[in-house]
Amino acid sequence: MNFLLGAFGPSCTISVDFSDADTRKQANIKKENGQSALVPLFHGQESVVGEVRIDPIPGKRVEHQGVKIELLGQIELYFDRGSFYDFTSLVRELDVPGVIHERKTYPFEFSTVEMQYESYNGVNVRLRYVLKVTITRNYATNIVEYKDFWVRNYQPHPEINNSIKMEVGIEDCLHIEFEYSKSKYHLKDVVIGKIYFLLVRIKIKHMELEIRRRESTGSGPNTYNESETLAKYEIMDGAPVRGESIPIRLFLSPYDLTPTYRNINNKFSVKYYLNLVLVDEEDRRYFKQQEITLYRAE
Amino acid sequence: MQAPVQDAITVAEEQEKWLADAMALVQHHAFFMHRALDANNLRDALKFSAQMLSELRTSKLSPQKYYELYMRTFDELRKLEIFFKDETKRGRTNADLYELVQHAGNILPRLYLLCTVASVYIKSKEAPAKDILKDLVEMSRGVQHPVRGLFLRSYLSQISRDKLPDIGSEYEGEGGTVMDAVEFVLQNFTEMNKLWVRMQHQGPAREKERREKERRELRDLVGKNLHVLSQLEGVDLDMYKDVVLPRVLEQVVNCKDEIAQYYLMDCIIQVFPDDYHLQTLETLLGACPQLQPTVDVKTVMSQLMERLSNYAASSSEVLPDLLHVEAFAKLSSAVVKVIEAQPDMPLVGAVSLHVALLTFTLRVHVDRLDYVDQVLGACVKKLEGKGKVKDSKATKQIVALLSAPLEKYNDVVTVLRLTNYSKVMEHLDYETNKVMAVVIIQSIMKNNTSISSSEKVDALFELLKELIKDSEGAPSMDEIDEDDFMEEQNLVARLVHMLVNKDHEEMFKILTTARKHFGQGGPKRLKFTLPPLIFAALKLVRCLQGHDAGDEALVSPKKIFQFLHQTVEALSTVPAPELALRLYLQCAEAASDCSLEPVAYEFFTQAFLLYEEEIADSRAQVTAMQLIIGTLQRTYVFGVENRDTLTHKATGYSAKLLKKPDQCRAVYACSHLFWLEEDGGTQDGERVLLCLKRALRIANAAQQMSSVTRGSSGPLTLFVEILNKYLYYFEKGIPQVTSNLIQGLLELIGTELQSENTAQDRAVDAFFASTRRYIQFQKQKGDDLAERYSSIQVVSPP
To answer: What is the ipTM metric for this complex?
Structure first.
């Protein structure tokens, strides 16, 4: 194996380390294969500082036409055959063309980087930030190394945060009035609310509150919508009678939520809904969906 | 009929199976929960406990089976609670735990876990008990399924019982006030009751019965809340009056459910202290008319009244309180209102309400006869226009209503003062009315109650009228059992002896009144009722005998005799001639004792008339004659002329009796009419001898008749009897009865005895032998009499 590695493998290893790796927070990210991994976490306007280390395989040397590091913000649409759209691209040249004989380290710094979008792993779309180190070579393929990091942006608490109140029903069959105390929630928030039964003529078995996420990708006729139910939270067991009011208290923290993304670079959007579902004894479902805005509070 | 039975079996089997399955799953999850607990793994502990609790989400089990499952998980939750407590020692805050358990996706496990954490949370005092309790009771609204909701809230009630911020509790103050505690329990109670009531309306109508049974099984879960309220130190009278009772009653009234209303009213009455009830009587009673018409209010109210009367009986200090709050007035008006509010209430309900009220009155206000009467009056009002009560249950209650005062006072006189008593009684059907009347009489007998005024007699007989006369609707005489009738009438007769007043005038009035009532009884009754009356009158006569007040007096023997005369006359027309005859003779004797010759004569006349006209049976004639003779003998009042007439009549009739022996005996009995021992009495030896001789002649004739018809002469009894008469008069010293005559008779008998014609009779032999022995004995006594006897020779038989 070593032989093979020596013959076809890269002649050097590249590693990227952040200067504050020990102290920096890490985000627990679920990868596509279902496993989770810890990734360094940044916010917008932060400086991304660190060093790149190039270790030639012992006994080999690396001839190159230059070494550079790029900070890329990419949107990857899965249905678009994995094409990337870079919405951010910053470059730092690390070395002029030459030969690397032994370990060489290059410090780098992207100061106060504009990273307005948050990292996101969706069903059809991925938004990622990555550091890309490229050793440019003349005749051989370039040696490239990626280093992912995660970006989250805190938002201020909204100034206006109205409650959601609505009366819905099916004529002569079911009339309810529901109320969620707010329309905008931060990710560790609690949905408080109440449901009043004004008229009940169906035999309700139970009632639950769902959190649904709708991810829209593309635009125009090529829009893809993908909805998933992230939470099913039973709030009522049995059939209520007229005049009954049922409390709602749903903690958002246990669920894997992101803020609402209205329009990310005209490529995609992610919206959240509270879906109130009543199930009757024949398993018919009656529901009412209300959009809520999620935001990330500090 | 096969199918339902089989169904029942399979249902039971199915239930068993479902329960077993659920139990097994609980066991299974509990095992993993225990492992997590041992490993201090909170996440897994919550996960497995939630799975375990998910078994409680079943809808298949009947409440009873569900309860078993609940108890099983309850035990497991205790372990979890301990774990939560340890968890906080390891640095996790209660608030954290409180949030964490709420992440559970299913509501039922979530709320059970929430309650379990809350128990630890409240104990830690990291948050005010009142806030946590309020949150719990509010969040529990999420479970709207009746059975599951009831058990969840029952769990809540269970874990919170010792953590309420009651007065004197460690949770008071920071944790809230007793008001919060009360509010919490009340709210839980209200919600539980709603769920409980809702059970009634869910599911198909044909399973109504089963549902009601299930509901009854669950009722204690609801009632427990009231018990908790009653146990709160802080619930004093004011709190009870202002908050607890109004709120509870509001719920009871508004739920409009029969089973709940009945049970909860009963609960309130049983759970809270007596003096609370007393002070809130108006409120409590106010709720009664508002209950559903089908609710068994009478039992509820009876229980309340019973409690109050027990309370009153418990100590004498309580009584003024009862009076102070006008318990009676409130209760009685409540009874009226309840009856008004429930127009469909069967009569039995209304009457038993009155019975309960009456029982209360009798126990608490023994001295207030007007109250008792008022209760009866109210009942009369209810019965008005209903005529005779047909419903047997209602009848029973009316009897209870009427018996209660009798038993309480043990004195009919008191009862007679109840003007409404008889009005109530009128509504009893014929049979029951009679039974009631018998009860009344028995009470009089048992307690030896004397009825001492004519008004009372009037009132009493009004009550007893079914016994005393034929009223409308009574069955005809043919339908009545003879023995029963006799027994009843005998009772009435005995009753007469209880009519007593020392004052003669009043006594006479009493008798007249009784007579008036008895007079309506018809011939069948008179036979029974009049004789005691007559004897009572005679008794009165004897009392008066000593001190004659003269004619001006309102009562005089004369008047009584007039009364007696009429009375006996009534009997004679019944007809009961033999009885009338005896009574005439009794009267005659009494009149004689009063020295009222004309009266006595009149009575005798009547007796003779009866004898002539009414008594046809020969045997009865014999008896009548004997009675007449006996009485006449003892009647001294007559002058010679009257006496002659009467004795003549008597002798005449005696000789005209049908059978010779009877004639003979009557005639020799007549001899006594001519020889009175007392001073100034007739002493006519001639006529005595005449009678005896005549008797002898008749005896002879009888003997001959016997020998002609039977071939042998009859026994010599008559002769021996006559001999004895002779001896009697001989000893009395009647000159006309001489030793010769006796000697002759002795010999005659001796001869006859030896005659072969004569039938042998040991009795006669013995009789004759002892007569002879008697003569011997007298002879040997050696006194004056012996001297006179000496001339008589007793020949010993061969």
So the answer is: 0.89
